[in-house]
Write a structure and sequence with these properties.
14 helices, mainly alpha, 318 residues, 3 domains, globular
Length: 318
């Protein structure tokens, strides 16, 4: 294949390596060395994670956790333009500023739906097994090039802005990747079987609605604990979804997976563990209540979760 997910990882790794270097050079950051080490390890995971032995990669993750735990990831200075300069450029470019952002979903859809079977000299253009993620990576590259052409900025300034955003998010930027890995480890450790045994002792397993209810609500609750629906999915699906809904009652696995993830996302809206979604926006907006985003989302999340339960029940057994 010509463009695979590996290339997307390499691009992410190169960007994180540049961010690490810029953080190390930033004398205004009192924790510049620790910040640089944190993002440097993250860069290594993208660039060399495939060849580094799991034990050493695990040690690197522990080092990152220690750095984050002692407050080693700090903000610095970012050579930002003034408010007046940003206003002038916003007026100059007007709605054209939205073009790079809109290109990301547009190119992703084109790649996913239209380029899956395209080949050049006998080689697949995009990796079929990860077509959506590869298309998203390609879309970001296209949007980046268009943004540089539109604004006439340099690639280095883009890296500085990327560093500013990553530093604003802080250690929470690595949560999705780490929590998804943790979910897989929980599944391998047999947590799903333990959950299945527990559920079987408290609900009537011959009742289809109760089993569906347990799965959807369990996805939301476990997501709230883990902070990520991708981490909850393998555990709850292995423990409840597949053995009880699919095997025992003959449910449609496609419906199970789709609505099950939606149910998990309801939990994402209601937990501070999903820091990159709920805590970071509050910090960036300087909200006095760090849980304000969560409080605003809870009513919507509960309504959506209720809809998901009934939607799954009426669709999965058809």
């Amino acid at each position: 294949m010509i463009f695979s997910l590996e290339y997307v990882y390499y691009i992410c790794g190169i960007l994180m390596a540049i961010i690490s270097f810029l953080a190390f050079k930033d004398q205004s950051n009192p924790k510049r060395v620790l910040t640089a080490i944190f993002w440097g390890i993250f860069a290594i995971s993208f660039l060399f994670g495939k060849i580094i032995p799991p034990m050493y990669m695990g040690v690197a993750v522990i080092i990152m956790a220690v750095i984050a735990g002692i407050g080693g990831v700090r903000l610095g200075s970012y050579s930002q333009s003034t408010e007046e300069e940003r206003t002038d450029r916003a007026v100059k470019f007007s709605n054209w500023l939205f073009v790079p952002a809109l290109l990301i979903p547009i190119v992703t859809i084109i790649g996913t739906l239209g380029l899956k079977e395209v080949t050049i000299a006998g080689l697949a253009l995009l990796e079929k097994s990860n077509i959506t993620l590869v298309s998203l990576g390609l879309a970001c590259i296209v949007a980046f090039i268009v943004a540089l052409s539109l604004t006439k900025e340099t690639g280095l300034q883009s890296a500085r802005e990327a560093r500013r955003l990553v530093d604003a998010i802080g250690w929470a930027a690595v949560l999705p990747q780490m929590l998804a890995t943790l979910g897989a480890l929980f599944a391998l450790a047999g947590v799903g079987q333990a959950v299945s045994t527990l559920i079987g002792s408290v609900i009537p397993l011959d009742n289809k609605f109760m089993v569906v209810f347990a799965y959807c609500v369990g996805m939301a609750l476990f997501t709230m604990i883990m902070g990520n629906a991708f981490a909850a999915f393998p555990v709850m699906t292995a423990g409840i979804g597949y053995p009880l809904v699919v095997v025992m009652h003959g449910g449609n696995p496609a419906v199970l997976c789709a609505i099950g993830m939606f149910s998990g996302y309801c939990g994402t809206l209601m937990t501070p563990m999903a820091a990159n979604y709920n805590i970071v926006p509050a910090a960036l907006l300087d909200l006095p209540d760090k849980n304000a985003v969560i409080k605003a989302q809870i009513p919507t999340a509960l309504v959506l979760l209720t809809v998901n339960v009934f939607l799954m029940y009426f669709l999965i057994f058809r």
